[in-house]
Amino acid sequence: MIRKVTAMNSRETLMKLCMAFGPTGAEDKVSQVIEEMVRPYVDEIRRDAMGNLIAVKRGQGKGKVMVAAHMDQIGLMVTSIDENGFLRVANVGGIAPRSVLYRQVTFENGTVGCVGLNAKAPSLDKVTLEHVFIDIGCESRAEALEKVQIGDTCIMQANFLDMGQRMSSPAMDNRSACAVLVEALKRLDTPAMDVYGVFTTQEEVGLRGAKTAAFAIQPDVGIAVDITGESSYPEAEATCSMKMGQGAAVKVRDASVFCTPAVVRWMEETAKEEGIPYQREVLTFGGTDTQAIQLTGAGIPAGCISIPGRYIHSMCETIDGRDYEAAIALLAALLKKEYQH
Ligand SMILES: [Zn+2]
Question: What is the mean pLDDT of residues 6-16?
Fold first, then answer.
């Protein structure tokens, strides 16, 4: 009897990636999960010295396109352990002290803990990471050292919430984009250009993985995929024009980059041709791997497909399934075509 193997659907891919452990600097686990997902669909897969996972699908000799989706998520790193076994921490990426308070955390080796607050801490708006600590249930430094070391990083623990159309997880930035890249690679038949799908490291601390990957690949065009802001929740109207549920966002700029106009046009024209819902994105803050690619060597045309999201860099990062699907469709459509400048 032949048993039918059903491929994971796009939502299952997203959920699985959101559950993987991968704070900045410790992306191995999420990288392994991704490797397993994409291996059957690409010609070559490798890792570089920065830990980037590079999946290559050969095309018809029309040049090279690099697509970057960062694997790392924000977290906390142990800086010291006091004599009573409480862990003191530093931020890994842009994590707000208020958002980590009284949360559950997990370390790579499975050690779990709670984030507590110093009993003499000031009011919540004045709390810094110096006032918080991680309680891993130990009573002494020696006992704590059996579970964690200085330099270990933890992530905030929370379930993947499936609210129907909308979904939430502390790792939505940027596993939703990793999932978009995985799903687009799965849909590639014979692309026009060689496709370098790069799952990058250390984006949250300064776009570091994408920088070395772009230097090594020297693509003709680069596309980053990441999450962006949106403005359809209370009092957010003035922050930007992107709205959840209105399609993939084609970035024009963020604080790190002005996307190459020809790449923006390429994205918009493709979305129109294919009937894929999209919206233009201007974000006045934030940065993405787009910048790292664009500033490589003598400069590389680069753009970005974004997924509008709410509560970014909190434990409840929320996106809309329609925007997620539109981002997959747009990336897959772009990768079938040649980039002409
Ligand atoms: Zn991101």
Answer: 88
Buried b (16+ CB within 10 A) or exposed e, 261-279: eebbebbeebbeeeebebb
Q: Give the predicted TM-score (pTM) of the model.
A: 0.95
On whether both 254 and 271 belong to a single domain, the answer is yes
Active site residue 203: yes
How many angstroms separate the alpha carbon of residue 137 from the centre of ligand 1? 32
- For 225, list phi and psi in degrees, rounded to 5: -125, 125
For residue 128, the enclosing domain spans: 75-156
Rounded to the nearest angstrom, the distance between the alpha carbon of 226 and the centre of ligand 1 is 5
Residue that is last in its domain, among 99, 131, 156: 156
- Angle made by CA atoms 179, 180, 181, in degrees to the nearest 5: 90
Pseudo-torsion of CA 103, 108, 111, 114, nearest 10°? -10
Spacing, Cα 254 to ligand 1 middle (Å): 12
- The Å distance, Cα 118 to ligand 1 centre, comes to 30
Centre a 10 Å sphere on the Cβ of residue 123 and count the other Cβ atoms it contains. 6
Question: Do 261 and 133 belong to one domain?
Answer: no
Last residue of some domain: 156, 187, 214?
156
- Whether residues 177 and 257 share a domain: the answer is yes
* Tally of domains within the chain: 2
- Both 132 and 210 in one domain: the answer is no
Mean pLDDT for all residues in the chain: 94
Q: Please, are residues 71 and 289 in contact by the beta-carbon 8 Å criterion?
A: no
Residues facing residue 184 across a β-bridge? none
**Catalytic, out of 27, 183, 203, 230:** 203
Per-residue model confidence as pLDDT tens digits over 246-290: 999 999 999 999 999 999 999 999 999 999 999 999 999 989 999
Residue 124's pLDDT is: 84
CA of 20 from ligand 1 middle (Å) equals 16
Q: Measured in angstroms, how far is the CA atom of residue 129 from the centroid of ligand 1?
A: 22
For residue 214, give the amino acid letter.
Answer: A
